[in-house]
Design goal:
single chain, 75 residues, mainly alpha, 2 strands, Cro/C1-type_HTH, Lambda_DNA-bd_dom_sf, Helix-turn-helix transcriptional regulator
Length: 75
């Protein structure tokens, strides 16, 4: 599954996490999260997998794009 920048921001919002907290938990730099969420660059597949795994382990369900676009919900 591809992670959209908007999903990343929304997931952090549901968890009440800062960019720094997500980055620390995922083992990536804060600038990676910041630049991705601002559409400044695309994530490498390995980095994307780290973010997805971290969010899912925290209780986030990432919804694939459908009629209304990608989404997130908390389990």
């Amino acid at each position: 599954m591809d992670l959209a920048p908007e999903q990343c921001r929304a997931a952090r919002g549901l968890l009440d996490w800062t960019q720094e907290h997500l980055a620390e938990r995922a083992g990536v730099s804060r600038s990676t999260v910041r630049d991705f969420e601002r559409h400044r660059h695309v994530l490498h597949r390995a980095t994307e997998a780290l973010l997805i795994t971290t969010l899912e382990q925290a209780g986030i369900m990432l919804l694939p794009p459908g009629e209304h676009g990608p989404g997130v919900r908390i389990r």
